[in-house]
Amino acid sequence: MIISGSDPAALQQAAKTLARGDLVGWPTETVYGLGADADNPQAVAQVYAAKGRPSDHPLIVHVTDASQVDHYAVNVPAVARRLIAAHWPGPLTLILRRRPGVAEAAAGGQDSIGLRCPDHPVGQALLRAAQALGVHGVAAPSANRFGRVSPTTAQHVQDELGEALLILDGGACQVGIESAIVDCTRDHPVLLRPGMLTIELLSQAGGERVLTPQAHAALQPAAAPAPRASGTLEAHYAPMARVHLLERHDLQQRLARLAQDPQRAHWAVWAFAPLEVPAGVLVDFMPTQAEACAHELFGQLRRFDGLGVQQLLVEMPPPAIEWDGVRDRLKRAAAA
Ligand code: TXA
Ligand code: MG
Q: What is the pTM of this model?
């Protein structure tokens, strides 16, 4: 059931639902989350069951502000404090050392914990209302079935998880792709998942170079591999359609071949600028600004699915760092 995030009674209903150990679909600025009281293992178990997610994949815990960090984490390094000061609330998740005995189920049994403070008025209002009822933090993965495209509207959440779930509507998510994840439990900060905050911005704010997992592995070949993160699985964020991510030149050639193919209904193309598209192939244009493209990305993939598209040709985004998040999601969609 979808209820309005601007209705105070609805907000209270959602907060009470969390406090009694049930699930709520709720908005953040990145994507919608499927929330549960992070300190209630039965509530957290319901999240894993609803998503069909393996229970050793850790969830992100969402907090109202930096004052809640020490409830969940210990030995918080200075680089993490600086990142928090610069980018919370915002689309940034930090992996920190977990306080022993706290939120073990939400952390999927890891000795670390992912923490994030979302920048969304309805999301923040829910966290605060739940906190007033004794909920320190809300564990929430993206509110999609495991491996699927993240939802960016309340309706997407209902399409994914059904009518029985209480869903707080906060409109379309502004950012549109999931938060950047920085692991601060190592000798160097490591970007486990790119988001819309670029690695350059994060390095500046952290006062220290944030490394890609590849750069970190090159620097510390003996270090343990990055912790398991489902958002970092190669094939993730997959629509129903098969996605082919191609440079413009290859895209044009593929379309030329498709012109000879009588089976070309059910094909679509999403590209930055007009190309020669054979009759019968659906075409739509990608925004040329990374922010706008991220905002539309998951909704667009769902729209193509809704139109029955089975094969989707997508133009490769530019190599510039502001496209890292979008390029990452498209590569994973194409790997599925
Ligand atoms: O923008 C977002 O981050 C959204 C909204 C709802 O906040 N959440 C989200 O959650 O994308 P999810 O569960 O779909 O992806 C969270 C990622 C996963 O890849 C998970 O494995 C990783 O964060 N993660 C969480 N806690 C971790 C930990 N302790 N160590 C390593 N990775 C962790
Ligand atoms: Mg997810």
A: 0.96
